[in-house]
Design goal:
Largest sheet: none
Structural class: mainly alpha
Strand content: under 5%
Number of strands: 0
Shape: globular
Number of helices: 23
Helix content: over 70%
Length: about 500
């Protein structure tokens, strides 16, 4: 007997919903990868922009600083908006900002408008925690862990893809072509998100902590400004020390405010959990090693011939040397998923930091061949990929669903701060080893810089070994957080695919 026409509508709707859910993880990965690639568009194009916009190299460097500052400011705010029913709107708003910024940067009549475009692009750097929050709530339990791990490595995978892509654009095309390409990618991601990502969230709506947002964003912006511009201003200049001191004071005030407000922007009580603290501290220290290698390899390969070291490679060739980062990250993601299933995330986290440490030591002692540098970037991707794949899993295990995006966005901010510290440390070492009146540092400068960043990565290994809790305390770590919540939020936190356990006392 034929099925009545009226009965086919709901069936068709369910099939459409099933189809969208099937594409949820690939769509989230495409969105996160898009933002990661767009964020790397600045570095290799700095000399090209300086030449075509008739500004100095130090002024053109603000293409990177502006994006970094915007990402640090937008991350915590987007993280809180992503922990409630406004999640899809927050994702779409951030992607719309990236799209508008890409178009503005591509069509900018002057350097000032180009910087505004880069600021708008930087807002997208806060999207990864929102994608992880969507994955936690809507992916099936058997795919959630691997899905979150895959999303977390898009940062390093995107860097590996973005550098060679940007190198080709900077060397063979007008720099505006790179921003038009970013507009195309972000436009596609905006369409995909509107079709695939579910509307709203099961988490209750919470007020945005405007005071906390202003304090945290201001403090982070001041510190990142000092780290990124400290060498240009002078490490001991009033501007550098003022930004560092002012940023530190503002962050202390923010921490006090966050402990006293009922709905803070970031619940820093969760940071006291040893597993969450290990993930955050390792993110900071591993970020130093990652961006240290990226900066050093990028510079070392392009050193002019006749300097006694380096390879005098083109931008395109340098990008190809950095491409193995993506391959290493993808390989590590698969390996980390298998190792987590067998040994648990607490034992896998230090492995990533140890690989990064060994890689930095290898490059400090042996970098006479391009193949060695390519191997070094592959190992960097493997170590960072393993660590980044595990960090959000530790956070998700120990925070309630209503704090997923906020807690992971704070972790993302610490990765950014670590990268800024790494870049500043590398710049300081290279400058200290550059002869007066010269433009090329001594070869020993790279050895020193690599050893310094290796020390930071090794400290991350120590933290990852020492801080995580034992098995019994890990199982109950989130209970104090849940029991402090109102009843409605506590019931919501219990329904999380087995991640947050029901308190047996209730």
């Amino acid at each position: 007997m034929a099925v009545p026409h009226a009965d086919r509508g709901p069936v068709k709707g369910r099939r459409s919903e099933t189809g969208r859910r099937r594409f949820l993880l690939p769509s989230l990965m495409f969105t996160a990868l898009t933002v990661s690639v767009v964020s790397t568009l600045g570095a290799p194009m700095v000399p090209t922009v300086a030449r075509e916009q008739h500004v100095s190299l130090s002024a053109a460097q603000w293409m990177l600083t502006a994006t970094l500052l915007a990402g640090a400011v937008a991350g915590p705010v987007l993280g809180r908006l992503g922990d409630g029913p406004r999640r899809r709107g927050a994702i779409q708003g951030a992607l719309a900002s990236v799209l508008a910024g890409s178009v503005l940067a591509a069509a900018a009549p002057g350097f000032a408008w180009l910087l505004v475009g880069r600021v708008l692009q930087g807002v997208g750097m806060g999207l990864l925690p929102l994608a992880i929050s969507v994955a936690r709530e809507h992916l099936p339990a058997d795919r959630m862990r691997s899905g979150i791990a895959s999303l977390s490595v898009t940062t390093s995978v995107g860097a590996g893809i973005g550098y060679p892509l940007t190198g080709v654009i900077a060397q063979h095309l007008d720099y505006r072509a790179g921003f038009w390409f970013a507009a195309l990618l972000s436009g596609l991601a905006l369409v995909v998100v509107g079709w695939v990502v579910p509307v709203g969230s099961s988490n209750p709506r919470r007020p945005l902590d405007v005071t906390g947002a202003a304090l945290l964003c201001s403090g982070l912006a001041l510190i990142l400004l000092a780290l990124s511009q400290g060498m240009a201003w002078g490490p001991a200049s009033a501007a550098t020390l003022g930004c560092l001191g002012g940023g530190t004071v503002v962050l202390v005030v923010w921490a006090v405010q966050a402990l006293r407000t009922p709905s803070p922007l970031v619940d820093i009580r969760l940071v006291r959990n040893r597993a969450v603290l290990a993930a955050n501290a390792t993110a900071l220290l591993t970020g130093i090693g990652m961006f240290g290698v990226l900066s050093l390899v990028n510079l070392y390969t392009q050193v002019p011939s006749g300097s006694g070291y380096g390879f005098d490679l083109s931008l395109t060739a340098t990008g190809l040397v950095l491409l193995p980062i993506s391959l290493g990250s993808l390989t590590a993601n698969r390996a980390a998923s298998a190792l987590v299933s067998r040994f648990g995330p607490y034992k896998v986290l230090p492995v990533g930091s140890l690989v990064v440490t060994a890689d930095l030591l290898m490059l400090a002692l042996w970098r006479d061949h391009v193949a060695v540098l390519a191997l070094g970037t592959f190992l960097l991707g493997a170590g960072v990929g393993a660590a980044y794949a595990v960090m959000p899993l530790l956070i998700v295990r120990h925070v309630p669903p209503s704090e997923t995006a906020s807690a992971t966005s704070f972790n993302q901010v610490l990765r950014t701060v670590g990268g800024s510290v790494g870049s500043a440390a590398v710049s300081a070492v290279l400058l200290a080893h550059t002869p007066a009146g010269g433009n090329v540092p001594e070869g020993s400068a790279y050895t020193t810089a690599l050893l310094v960043t290796a020390g930071a990565a090794f400290l991350g290994f120590v933290v990852a070994v020492v801080l995580p809790p034992g098995r019994r305390s890990a199982a109950a770590a989130v209970e104090p957080v849940v029991t402090r919540r109102p009843a409605r939020q506590a019931r919501t936190a219990e329904v999380t695919s087995g991640i947050v356990r029901r308190d047996p006392r209730r």
